[in-house]
Amino acid sequence: MRRFEGFPPGRASYTPIPDQFFSELLASIDDLAEMKLLLYLFWALYHQKGSPRYMTMAELENEGILLSGLPTKANQTPVQALQDAVNRAIARGTVLRLDVSNDQGVTSYLFINTHQGRKAVKDVQNGTLILESRGRVVEAHIAQDRPSIFALYEENIGLLTPLIREELIEA
To answer: Quick one: DSSP state of residue 6?
Structure first.
């Protein structure tokens, strides 16, 4: 496991999370993948511009940072773990899914169950809102643990002495 070095000094950006998450949901969510999905959605949707804010399943399936952090069960791919987490969140009522058919197939849109999310779903169902896919689509990847400079030195150069260790820390 890679050790977290801490938050940087100075101005940091923050993602707001509704109080009900802590007062009602935190104790009831018993699946780590569902928890990570929900936190990721709070972050991703907060950083979107405009309204309504949503992600498609296709976009989520290409979010490497999310996929690499999801726990998988035996013989389960990260995408299957994501689909399970989405289904759990929908069953719990924290996420709303809206499936829209078009010439290319079915697109699943995901909203957080907020007033704005419920309104967007209702507006699409009534035909007063047409969704266009937003957000970024990035190539899926699985993050690998990066070796420390000390491990790299020993793998490529040789035994690490205390003096060299101090010089590497200073560098």
So the answer is: -
